[in-house]
Amino acid sequence: MLNPSDNTSLPVTPLHIAIIMDGNGRWANKRGLPRAAGHQAGFKVARSIVEAVGKRQHKALTLFAFSSENWRRPPTEVRLLLELFMSALHSEVDKLMDNNVHMRFIGERSAFPDKLREQMNLAEQKTAANDGLKLAIAVNYGGRWDIVNAAKKLASSVQAGEMTVDDITEETFAQRVCLPDCGDPDILIRTGGDQRISNYLLWQLAYTELFIDEVLWPDFSEIELDRAIDSFASRERRFGRTGAQIGNGKSDA
Ligand code: IPE
Ligand code: IPE
Ligand code: MG
User: Fold this and answer.
1) Is the CB–ligand 2 distance for residue 64 below 6 Å?
2) Residue 194 catalytic?
3) pTM attached to this predicted model
4) In angstroms, what is the span from residue 164 Cα to ligand 2's centroid?
5) Among 53, 11, 18, which Cα is nearest to 231's?
6) In the chain, what are the domain boundaries?
7) Pocket of ligand 1, beta carbon within 6 A
8) Nearest residue to 217 via CA among 50, 83, 69, 39
9) CA 175 to ligand 3 centroid distance, Å
């Protein structure tokens, strides 16, 4: 069952980590550098965090790289981000293979140039049989887009007579949003200090533990990752129940 109330227990380690990698621009500004330098530094950190997470017991890592709202940025910055993404696809796939990482992308791809989409498909195909870390990169992703997309899939199935309206449940819905095979994120880490979700995995984050880190993404490291995971381990996940029902002695409420 999907209902998280079945999973009440003291968390040990998060199986699925989601990250909003924010603060590249501020990091660059602080140093008198162009925003591009912040994105380049941020990319290097993303690479090292993928490697670090892959070596631990976590099963899935979902990184927010470009939101559906980021098109609103100046065209030069959007172009730079897409170029950085493209060159990362070239340079990183072999390393992901070495580390047994299964990579895929979530988000609306039709907005991207053909060449980029081709590279994305190739990277996904190449790493598809890897059974290590499930890495998802959210590009041109929006949580509302994800939900609308799932609704459209369900509506099509009803229209085709494959299911009835009564078959639309939280379970069937959850199978049609992105990442149905990863389980909902256990923890969401947002760097850069802003306390918002910015249209990230709206459906999937329903009961996710939030960890807002003041550190700007290019300064994030395994030390901050450990702090987030330690914080997660100390939390009582009640999923609507009382502390006493959880029965871990941390709460008598
Ligand atoms: C996150 O850093 C990267 C993307 C959104 C692509 P920002 O570029 O948003 O950095 P700040 O928030 O302006 O510092
Ligand atoms: C969220 O960061 C998106 C990514 C990190 C890719 P933003 O910097 O775009 O978020 P807002 O606009 O400040 O909410
Ligand atoms: Mg930002």
Assistant:
1) yes
2) no
3) 0.95
4) 38
5) 11
6) 13-233
7) 21-26, 66, 70, 81, 192
8) 39
9) 30
Read off the amino acid at residue 217: W
Pocket flag, ligand 2, residue 219 (CB < 6 Å): no
H helix or E strand, kind and range, residue 16? strand 16-20
- The more confidently predicted of residues 144 and 6 is 144
Which token pair is 120?
């994305």
Question: Can you tell me which atom of ligand 2 is nearest the CA of 66?
Answer: 6
CATH topology of domain 13-233: Undecaprenyl pyrophosphate synthetase (3.40.1180)
| Residue 26 binned pLDDT confidence (cut-offs 50, 70, 90) | very high
For residue 24, give the ligand nearest its CA. 1
Cα distance between residue 45 and residue 60, in whole Å? 17
Specify which of 2-11, 85-94, 173-182, 234-243 reaches the highest per-range mean pLDDT: 173-182
**pLDDT tens digits, residue range 133-171?**
999 999 999 999 999 999 999 999 999 999 999 999 999
Given a cut of 90, is residue 128 above it in pLDDT? yes
Residue type at 211? F
Asked if 70 is an active-site residue, the reply is yes
Separation between Cα atoms, residue 175 and residue 192, nearest integer Å: 32
Tokens of 33: 């550098």
